[in-house]
Amino acid sequence: MSEIRIVRDVLPKDEFEKRFVYSPDNTTIENKITRKIKKKFRTCSLWNLLKKFFPILRWLPEYKIPYLSTDIIAGSTVAILNIPQAMAYAALAGVPAIIGLYTSFFPPILYMLFGTSKHISLGMFAVVALMTANVEQRLRSDHTLSSSGFTGPLEDIEAVQIVATLTFAVGLVLAVMALLQIHYVSAYMSDELIGGFTTGSAVHVAWSQIPKIFALKLPQRDGLFLLFKITIDFFKNIKHTNYWALVISVCCMVFLYLGKTYVNPFVKKFCPVPVPLELIVVIVTTILSNTLDFHKKHGIDVVGKIPTGLPIPTLPKISKLPHVFPDAIVIAIVIYAVSFSMAKLFAKKHRYKLNPAQEVRAMSACQIFSSFVFCHPVCASLSRSTINSQLEVNSQLSGLVSSGIMLLLILWIGPLVEQLPMCVLASIILVALQTMLLQITQLRPLWKVSKYDFLIWLVSFLGTILWDVSEGLVIAICFTLLTIVIRTQVPKAVTLGQVDETEIFRNPQRFSHAFESPFATVFRFEAPLLFVNCDRFKTQAMKSRNLDPSKLYFVIDAGAIFDLDKMGSSTLMELSDEFARSNVKILIADCNEQFVEICSKCGVFQKIEKNYFFESVLDAVVYASKYTDRESRVSSIIE
User: Fold this and answer.
1) Contact 233, 219 (CB under 8 A)
2) pLDDT in tens, 502-520
């Protein structure tokens, strides 16, 4: 066994700094800002600036021809999966199917220019589609239409304009986030928050599609207990079920479920490219619908007219911007949090770096520019991004290939799927939600690992379920911030003992060989000492001190106190005065340099001398034992 043997004197903080020549950082904030600006301009050139904002200029010159085959295969596979998903999620968003195809064509090309992730696939995403549908349904009452480059029925034109305006607003929100560097807000959206929120949203999406499986027309609902209202409407209208649509839907769902559960895992053993189950369903049901005339003979809703050709770029409906902005803020946060979390996941797996700031700029550019061609708010898709990861793509050229296939569909092939039943698209969505719905299995392990994480997941889920998607996200973020406040305000505080024959101090209640020092109480506070938790610090310190009032020294293990404010330093001085009345001295151990500097500025050294600050807990305890013996001998002589 390796050994550590160190023989040295006890080192108070002031002696340690003198011996090892500590140099405090006296740089002012103004100097730091000036230095940072100079550094930026020193390294700044037009070419570096272009590479910063257009990462394609960095990776494209290094691209290797052998990568091309993998990127083409991955791009083609993603496109085949994306075709039915794009139309299905467009239906979910309440816009024509062609909008889903536009959203799968334009943004991937833009992301190839601006993005830093090799693997995420941009396009339609179920949760964002549902949030968009809520906005579109709320605003559709205003029939004042501007000139549009989109042709179709009046209600479709209005829906498309609202969605394009929402996409533009989402892009503006992301642009502000990029400009102000507030993309760090997404750090508060933990995996547990996103998991609970997306699972709750998936339930909303699923429940919005079930009436389409039965071919029922239900009234629009909103507000608290939305799902319960929809459920009541569903059972009131279930007698109007179209059994042809129900049978078609059930057959499609069984086929897709069996294919995803059994066929594709088997095929994966021999070939990384999955069977395009959704595309097979679309082709077969479209042929049957054309042959048997599902729409006219059996009253089954179909996709309808799909215009060919690319849209004429048109300005979004600016008059609608004030009405969509509150929703745009929430949708922008969801899009960035979901997309960036996926990008981080795949970057970590494949060992390359992401640029968080550039990712915000990329997502903003994708939203703003694509809004001029009627695109839906764009987000990364987990299923399509996973395929890119499994096929080990090497760049976003795979997105260009995918967009190329989408272009063929937009220009020539679109009209061939006009007779596709809408209930088939609903079936595709329901089966695709399986992965998100199964996230609920995360709850049990979370309970064992962290009660806080468990509650964040549960509140995010229930808030979304019981209200609506946007409100659920707000509830989830507020609750997460509350848990952070609670953890900061009510941190753990323990009395420590020295582990036998080591210099390590641990909780004696957890370690049977950790024994409290007979000379000093060792107290550990596991949080920054700030105004929000000063009272708790003082209360817990007094409680720890009162466990053995005979000890003359009270050691504060400051290893976990990584920050200190004015009220925190005042609390240390108050505690010192309190203990001094009982002839107890405070020693502070294992504190960082910032802690010491704040103590110096706030006058703590007037109450707790600097030679009572130590580099380690053991230094402080040895000092306490030495001077306790000395004071005991002095007391004996006096007696």
Assistant:
1) yes
2) 889 999 999 999 999 999 9
DSSP state of 198: H
Cβ atoms within 10 Å, residue 273: 16
Beta bridge mates, 521: 554
**CA atoms of 379 and 367, how far apart (whole Å):** 9
Q: What's the CA gap between 324 and 211, in Å, rounded?
A: 27
- DSSP of 254-271, one letter per residue? HHHHHIIIIIHHHHHTT-
Domains of the chain, by residue range, sit at 57-484, 490-638
For the chain, give the mean pLDDT. 89
CATH architecture of 490-638: 2-Layer Sandwich (3.30)
SS3 at position 314: coil
pLDDT at residue 637, as a whole number: 40
Collapsing DSSP to helix, strand or coil, 373 comes out as coil
User: What is the DSSP track for 582-597?
Assistant: TT-EEEEES--HHHHH
The Cα 462–Cα 479 span in angstroms is 12
Nearest-CA neighbor of 360 among 385, 376, 339, 330? 339
Q: 82 and 370 in contact (C-beta within 8 Å)?
A: no
Q: Between the CA of residue 414 and those of 123, 303, 587, what are the distances in Å?
A: 18, 11, 77
Residue 523: beta bridge partners?
Answer: 495, 556
| Contact predicate 338/436, CB 8 Å | no
**Alpha-helical segments (H) within 184-320:** 191-213, 226-237, 243-258, 264-268, 277-292, 294-298
Cα dihedral 225, 230, 232, 236 in deg (nearest 10): 170
Does position 245 have pLDDT exceeding 70, yes or no?
yes
Q: 381 in helix, strand or coil?
A: strand
In one-letter notation, the amino acid at residue 54 is: F
CA distance 515 to 101: 69
- Residue-wise pLDDT tens digits, 362-377: 999 999 999 999 999 9
Q: Across the strands, what pairs with 9? A: none
**Cα distance between residue 33 and residue 60, in whole Å:** 34
Q: Are 309 and 411 in contact (CB under 8 A)?
A: yes
Q: Ramachandran region of residue 506, left (φ > 0), alpha (ψ -120 to 50) or beta?
A: beta
Confidence label for 585 from pLDDT (cuts 50, 70 and 90): very high
Q: Give the CA count within 13 Å in the CB-facing half-sphere of 162.
A: 27
Q: What is the distance between the alpha carbons of residues 630 and 123, in angstroms, rounded to a whole number?
A: 75
With a CB cutoff of 8 Å and minimum separation 6, the contacts of 415 are 306, 308
R_g of the chain computed on alpha carbons: 32
Q: How many Cβ atoms are within 10 Å of 578's Cβ, its own excluded?
A: 15
